Amino acid sequence: MAQHQASRKDWDTYFMDIAYMVSTRSRCPRRHVGAVLVQGKKLLGTAYNGAPMGVSDCSEAGCMIVGEYELVREGEQEKMVKKERCIRTIHAEQNLLLFTDRVDREGSTVYVTDQPCWTCANMLANSGVQEIVYHRPYLKDHDKVLQLMEKKGMRFRQLGGYQPPEQTRMEPAP
């Protein structure tokens, strides 16, 4: 009698699925982000975006949105781009760095549901991490983050064709 063998997920899908499951812990009404630290095929840490421990989060106290302007050069043209962000929330990548050890990060990979913003990319570039794998793009910072990763010699890639687990889908904010 032949036994049926279920197909196994590849490692990228496996770890990105975990990052999406971790993101379900976030209480951010704007976006749930999850990140995992992997050394080889060993999971060393998980984190999600949210307010500091013991502080009211955005679902309880409202978002603390600030507007920032950035001068962006496109070819010969310069333009001001407005970016809005919540300053109550600690990003998933920042929490991951706060709650993992440098020795574990050396040569490791971070799987994150969303492309890191400029600040998180800078922190990851200085953390010992050698690769960042993300799913959803963050177009506002994409070009400068890509340049940083190239300068640092870090692998930086979007997981194309990936479909997050159904139970991790976030309801749109009202």
From TrEMBL:
Gene Ontology molecular function: any one: dCMP deaminase activity
InterPro entries: APOBEC/CMP_deaminase_Zn-bd, CMP_dCMP_dom, Cytidine_deaminase-like, dCMP_deaminase, dCMP_deaminase-rel, Deoxycytidylate_deaminase_dom
UniProt-listed GO biological process terms: pyrimidine nucleotide metabolic process
Any one Gene Ontology cellular component term annotated for this protein: cytoplasm
Residues annotated as the enzyme's active site: 93
Cofactor(s) required for function per UniProt: Zn(2+)
Domain CMP/dCMP-type deaminase positions: 10-159
Zinc keyword on record: yes
Classification via Pfam families: dCMP_cyt_deam_1 (PF00383)
Protein name: Cytidine/deoxycytidylate deaminase family protein
Annotated source species: Paenibacillus sabuli
